[in-house]
Amino acid sequence: MGKFPEADAEIINTWVCRRCKSRNKRGVEKCRKCGSKYLRPKNKEIKAKKA
Ligand SMILES: [Zn+2]
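ok -> structure tokens follow
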């Protein structure tokens, strides 16, 4: 977890499009911007950076 619990919650509820990098709400089927289905939870990106 990061220093700011509120920010963590926001990140957890955010999915990032792997194609256009736009942020989407968690649980959406596809990107609201480009329609891509390649979304990933944003918190995984942070874990990868830590590791
Ligand atoms: Zn997109």
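The chain is about 35% helix and 20% strand.
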